[in-house]
Amino acid sequence: MPKLIELKDGVAKGVEDPFTNLADDQDLAEGDVIVSLARFQADGERLLSEGRRVGVRLQAGEQVEALVYDLPRLAVVALEFPKYRDGRAYTNGRLLRDRFHFRGEVRAVGEVLREQAGFMVRVGFNTFEPADDASANEWQAAVHRYRHVYQRAADGRIPVFGERAFAERGA
Amino acid sequence: MYQYDTLDRQMLADRSAEFRSQVARRLSGEITEDQFKSLRLMNGLYLQLHAYMLRVAIPYGSLNPTQLRKLAWIGRTYDKGYGHFTTRTNLQFHWIKLRDTPDILDHLASVDMHAIQTSGNCIRNVTADPYAGATAEEVDDPRVWAEALRQWSTFHPEFSFLPRKFKFAVTASPKDRTAARVHDIGLVLKRARDGALGFEVIVGGGMGRTPYVGPTIREFLPVNRLMSYVEAILRVYNRHGRRDNLYKARIKILVAALGKDEFARQVEAEWAKIGDSVDLPDTELARIRGAFARTGFETLPPVSDAFETAKAATPAFARFARNNLKPHKKLGYTIVEISLKGIGDTPGDATSEQMEVVADLAERYGQGDIRVTHEQNLVLPHVKLDDARAVWAALAEAGIATPNINLVSDIIACPGLDYCALANARAIPIAQHIAEKFRDQDRAERIGELKIKISGCINACGHHHVGHIGILGVDKKGEEFYQLTLGGSGAEDASVGAMLGPALPYDRVADAVDTLVEVYLRERQDGERFLDTFRRTGVAPFKEAVYAEAH
Q1: Short-list B118, B94, B96, CA closest to B350
Q2: Three-state DSSP class for B445?
């Protein structure tokens, strides 16, 4: 069973992961790869020139600003949750989408739990490697748990104040 | 008061359904207690020494009679017939069964209440001046901004897993009844010379093991830019706050480490990048503001004959009026403070019957408005002077007419070792001993304003650092000892108390407080409060008197 869940047009699906997630001390694999920021800074040019798709994995303490000039060339930015309660990746995700307009895949890795699914989607994550064995169906239910949101974020959902204004105009 | 609409209610219903499914997963054994912990803590559910404790949010301490009656009913049905009002103006039920909690949340939701973000490392219940809308001192209604912050912070996708919990206070009066300067963010509404409304933004105050009075990082923030500015503060904190040490994770540590100027520079730089894209539209602010507009006041004469006659006829009522009634902005009205600090009672506790009495009084005499103060009392903010005696009589019958607001027995105490797994020492019985000692009300009034605050451990839930007299429970080789501090204040003249001397054993604390008060009465000069005298004389005469007795 695939352990990567992709959310597309609001539907969560289990998908095969085309990327190989490379540790820093691991030999280079064929095909599409996700590497650490350090390895990308060392080998990024070469990897990209080989015509493969390349993703970068950011640890919680690394900031997405480090990737700004490379974003158009990246297929994936994987943001790490060392613990579910370490919330730094939410800021990285939000800035990727809102400030740097990254259009590629933003992937949640690490201690990724269904209880956090709604928050992750709102700041712009669209693929997930659940650490709690959540199925695509369970993930889908978690993402759509709340019918409304109170504030603007990176997902473009209209907050309640927008819904209210809309209802007012319609009335 | 702000009324929840369908959208607010659907948010609560969705939360309730989520929690019900989480409890079901726990009860069926699908998840372990350890895995469940992270879920229940998002819902204000703690496992304490004897039972589960459920903390119910009371946004900016504001309740209507229907809500208070529901809390009373829950206390009677699922707890032991009472609840405990906290320094975050929330209500805690201390004897809850896990399997009942989903039903309790549904009952709460039926009156627009919840336990959202009453625990966890997220933005907690926003507190505001309990006299909002009633005091003539304020330049604006702080509840408008507290409500805007409530909505913005609820399930905030970026800021629900901060390094540590995060607390806002909002006030609009020069006299600070919210302890704004010892909050993660304190917002003080001000008017500029041209009449424009803005906030003084105070960041990085706090208590716990490292108390700080928070510095002001911006003197004047235009009110309509509030959301983007706090988003900038939270983002700097979320990224740079320490996560390696629980005790150094609050924003106060980051602000102190960077220095207030550098912290402010980082916030301003981030704010400039955010722009105004997350600020609330003026139409929404106007909608919220409209909900707090109050038009039900009558035109009354400045003097109420009924009130004056009642005071002259009934000395006990006159005493209540002196201590528990506060000036209202409208002629002929008063603010009634209801003390939950009866002599010998547990500070902040109210029985279900008492809650119902307060709800009835609010409905009959108080325009349906009830507030909770961070000093663990209740307030009826809009009562006619003509009705004050009737309100007092009903409170007296319910045992909650103690005339001690701001006096020596109006003590803040955390639940302490009687309930809390973190505590080193008991707090409640210490408060009771002190209150007993000052049972004589004439003497208490002679002493005047004196704020005693007691915490059962260094986490400082009882705010001891900002007590005029602070009392901290410590553990010395398995025995309860108490460290006294003097000269703290959580008000506009905020300061952190200074240590008196070596910790005292349990049975000497009340006597030591008595001695401190005697020194104050001996030393005070015209009109000085305890705090003023201490600030003038320093610790020496107090220290000498307390420790001389030990020899």
Answers
A1: B94
A2: helix
B413 pairs with which residues across the strands?
B454
E strand segments, B76-215: 82-85, 91-96, 127-128, 168-171, 185-191, 197-203
Mutate to test the interface with A, among B6, B7, B31, B233 (most CBs of A within 10 A): B7
Tell me what the mean pLDDT of segment B324-341 comes to.
Answer: 97
Spatial distance between the Cα atoms of B197 and A74, rounded to a whole number of angstroms:
46
DSSP three-state, residue B238: helix
3-class secondary structure, B113: coil
Domain CATH for A128: 3.20.20.70
CB neighbourhood size of A102 (10 A): 21
Give the residue from B151, B265, B264 showing the smallest Cα distance to B204.
B264
Per-residue pLDDT for B251 more than 80? yes
Collect all residues of chain A within an 8 Å Cβ-Cβ radius of residue B158. Answer: 87, 90-91, 94, 119, 123, 153
In contact, B91 and B56? CB cutoff 8 Å: yes
CB contact under 8 A, A160 and B162: no
Q: With CB atoms and an 8 Å threshold, state whether B38 touches A88.
A: no
Do B11 and A90 count as a contact with CB atoms less than 8 A apart? no
> Rounded distance, CA B416 to CA B424, Å?
8
- pLDDT > 70 in chain B, percent: 99
Interface contact B39-A115, CB threshold 8 A: yes
Secondary element (H or E) of residue B231: helix B226-240
The reply to whether B9 touches chain A by the CB within 8 Å rule is: no
Question: CA B510 → CA B405, B479, B521, distances in Å?
Answer: 19, 17, 17
Chain A interface with B: residues with Cβ < 8 Å:
63, 84-88, 90-91, 94, 99, 115-116, 118-120, 122-123, 145-153, 160-161, 163-165
Across chain B, mean pLDDT equals: 95
Give, for all 171 residues of chain A, the pLDDT tens digit.
458 999 999 999 999 999 999 999 998 888 999 999 999 999 999 999 999 999 999 999 999 999 999 999 999 999 999 999 999 999 999 999 999 999 999 999 999 999 999 999 999 999 999 998 899 999 999 999 999 999 999 999 999 999 998 887 765
Report how far apart, in Å, the C-alpha atoms of B219 and of each of A125, B185, B200, B264 are. 37, 13, 5, 11
| Contacts with B257 (C-beta within 8 Å, 6 or more apart), sequence order | none
- What is residue B114's DSSP assignment? B
Residue burial B378-402, b: 16+ Cβ < 10 Å; e: rest = bbbbbbbbbbbbbbbbbbeebebbb
Helix axes B530-537, B509-523, angle to 10 degrees: 80
**Chain A residues with CB-CB distance to B19 below 8 A:** none
Question: Among B31, B523, B181, B229, which residue's Cα sits nearest to residue A113?
Answer: B31
Q: Do B158 and A160 touch (CB under 8 A)?
A: no
Q: Which residues of B touch A148 (CB under 8 A)?
A: 7, 10-11, 14
Distance to chain A for B389, nearest Cα, Å: 43
Closest CA to B309 of B321, B297, B299, B298: B321
Q: Which of B351, B347, B480 is nearest to B408 (CA)?
A: B347
Burial class from Cβ neighbours inside 10 Å (0-12, 13-18, 19+) for residue B41 reads middle
- The predicted complex's ipTM stands at 0.97
Q: Which domain holds residue A111?
A: 4-170
Would you state the torsion angle of the CA atoms of residues B15, B20, B23, B27, taken in this order, to the nearest 10 degrees? -170
Is residue B548 predicted with pLDDT exceeding 90? no
d(CA A8, CA B308): 71
Number of domains in chain A: 1
Over 90: is that where the pLDDT of B46 sits? no
- List the structure tokens of B477: 């080789």
